[in-house]
Amino acid sequence: MPRETIDTGNSKRYVRRDAEGQFTEDQVSVGKSLAADRRQKAKTVAKKGDGDRGDRKSS
After folding, report:
1. pTM score, two decimals?
2. What is residue 22's three-state secondary structure?
3. Structural domain span for residue 15
């Protein structure tokens, strides 16, 4: 499943849902996720919504 953005009003988070629609354990802050993306390049090209599983080709 692709990740979705949750805006709590105080922070934004990337979350995933399982097959039943419940949140999985892996939730990450948007700011930390984008900072980690800038620090390193992944070898895998990920699909839309799966940015934490690799890089996206720039358009």
Report:
1. 0.55
2. coil
3. 1-39
